[in-house]
Structures are given as structure tokens and as C-alpha cells.
Amino acid sequence: MPSIANTELTFEREPLRHPFGFKGGALTELWQVVAGLEGTSGKRGVGLGVQSVLWSDAALFTERAEGAGNCLMFLMTEFAMREARGRRFESPPQLLHELFPEVLEYGRSVTGRPDLRATFALNALVAVDFAAWLLWAREKGVTTFDELVPPACAAALGGRQEKLTKIPLITYGTGPDEVRQLVEEGCFFLKIKVGADPDGDGDREKMLDWDCERLSALHNQLSGYECPFTENGKIAYYLDANGRYDSKERLLALIDHAKRIGALDRIHLLEEPFAEDSEEDVSDIPVRIVADESAHTTEDAIRRMDLGYGAIALKPIAKTLSMSLDVARAAHERGVPCFCADLTVNPLMVEWNRNVAARLNPLPGLRVGVMETNGEQNYRDWEKMLSYHPCSGKPWVADEAGLFRLNDEFYRTGGGIFDPAPHYEGLVGGGSGD
Question: Of 261, 266, 277, 338, whose CB is crowded by the most CB atoms within 10 A?
Fold first, then answer.
């Protein structure tokens, strides 16, 4: 049983190419957290995290300066690391479930927000959880991702995809030239942010009008393209509302608009239309509704599925691998498909998502697996960050015509997650401790 003797923690600030708009706000940088856990054996695990205050709690982001919000989340990670010191754990999920309520309570105190969202605490715990998985793997001699997966979760991750399609992100400000380039490069499943606040006044009718106009413009641009990887042969749309719709009636107005313009059969997913405290049953909405932010924990995900949500967005890189594996198990037991969504993470963190996505079955209506990744679109220094990936240059790391091609080496090595990453390990005191 690993016992944590020492901990180290730091972060790097990575600027974005341009303001990244969603949930009515915009990010300009993302903090890359590096957490090191050392066991009493001398073995070490170094885990990475990316903080997204706007994604994990938009209300906190709005009331604070961007840097202040990042500082608060980092304080929560630092608290988790202090609490982890001296603990013994049978498995990383056990450690996560011990730390999560403590970190959430601390976060609510330090932010002064008794309603701080649970996802904010999970986002703060990602680097700690990954470090725990890698320490546990080194203690147990585990060298493949399949060996990491708990037996109870194995059936949910029983696939073995040879290809994953890249899901790029179409933000409020993504222009037609960039959209055209993505499609002509081979991308066919586009994640489109809706729920804009065009005048910054919170007017939901203006939001609906803006979303309808945006969908019309994109559909006019994309309707002529064909695709061999969807069952209907058309470019697929994945709408992400980030909880911005306040009623089913308003959401149905958007869907009616999609039907009028001939776009309804292209909408394969519609993510988080309502606020997370909504108890609206969505089983009668004529598109597949996805739970993401509202599915903080396994219990939350089950509640969403009971309300008619037809897919779950897994985010090992945003809500911890430990929690995501258990959510995948619960969804599999109920016949609800899952897929992996991004948080604009760095290239090495993408690898954790790719390992999970590679083992999920394709979504209904698609002929290949999927994985969202948008870091290349949004980080200013993506190429520099790629150089920190121990398998940079391997065929699965970059897409080819919109597809990531997974070979035996990827499955044998976990894509590089077990390999030393000197840049990040050097930030927290040196080598991997093997």
C-alpha cells in the first residue's frame, strides 16, 4: 500500500492565442499545474493539471479578476497536497474520495462561496489524482493503461479503437476561414459553442437570436461537405450550451430553428443546455442531451441519466481519472454512451484522455471513436508544449486528416503517460523515482 512521504507543487502560466470565449466570458491564459508525490519507497509520481476557473465555476470567474480565480483554485490544490502528505492508500480512487469533500469544504471557505461548484474542487484535484495513479503504478510495477483500470470499470472500457476523430472547438469568435480549414483538413465532428451573451446584458432572447444566426451561418457553410465516418454521410454538429438556456421552451425554439434550416439530423449531441440545478426531464427533446459539468460525481451522473440525458462527457483531465472511470462504469451499466471531452489541456494531458477514448465504443451515428482536443487551436506556444511530451513525433500524437491513428505501440506504452517527462518532473524536484 503506497504511503505518501513528500509532496511538491508548482505551476506554469500558458498564454492563449486569443481570448477564449464561452459561458458568456473569456479566458486569456491557463495555468498548468505540476504535482509530485513521493512514496516512502522513494518512488515518485508526477501529475499534471490544467485550471479552468471559467469552465468549473463561471460565477466565481465573473466576480474575480482572472488571475485571482486561478490563485484560489491553486490554493485548493496546495491544500490537497498538504492533506495527502502522510496518507496511505490502497488505490487512487480511495485517495480521491477521501480528499474530495475536504478540498470542496476548504474551497468554499477560502473563496467565500458556500455554493462553490463541486467541479471546481475536482478541477483542483486533477494533478494530485494523476500523480497518485503514477505513484501507484510505479509501486505496483504497472506499465499499461489496461492494468490501471479497476476490474469493476473494465467492461466500460473494453473497446480498442484503431482511429479516433479529432473534435475541434468552434468558439463564439471562430471565423469562417478557420472553420473551413478544419473541415478541409478532415475534421467532421465540430463542437460549437452556443449560449452567447452578445451585448453582455444577460438577455436570453438576444442569446437565442444570436445562436440561431450562428447556427444558420455555420450550416450554410458546411452543408455541402460529405463525410464517410458518419452514418448519414454529413458533417456532424455537437452543440455546447454550457447551462445558458433557462427553459425547455427556449431550447426547443433553437431546435425548431435547426429543423427549419435542415440541420437537425446533423446535431448528434447537445451538451448541458440547462443550469446544473435544473431538474428538467429531457427525454422528450429530439436530440441526444449530454451531461458534462452537471455530472460532477457518479451519483450526479446517475441522476442526469434518470432525467433522460443520453450521453455523458467524460473528463479525466478536468474531473479526475478516478471519478471519470466510475462514471463510465455507471453509464455502461445503463447503456448510455460516453465520450471524452477536452479542457484545452496540454499535449501530455491529452494522452490520458486518448487512453480512455480509445477504449470507448463509437457514439451512435458515428463509425469511429471520438476525442475532443482543442489545445492546438488555442495555446500560443503549442509547439513548445509538444516538445515536453515524451512521445512527441509518434504517429498517434498528431492527427492525420482529422484522425488519430492508434497502433500497437500506443496501447503497449499508454501513449507515453508512463514515460519520464523531464520538463515537468524537473519543475518538482527531478526524476521519476524509478
Answer: 338
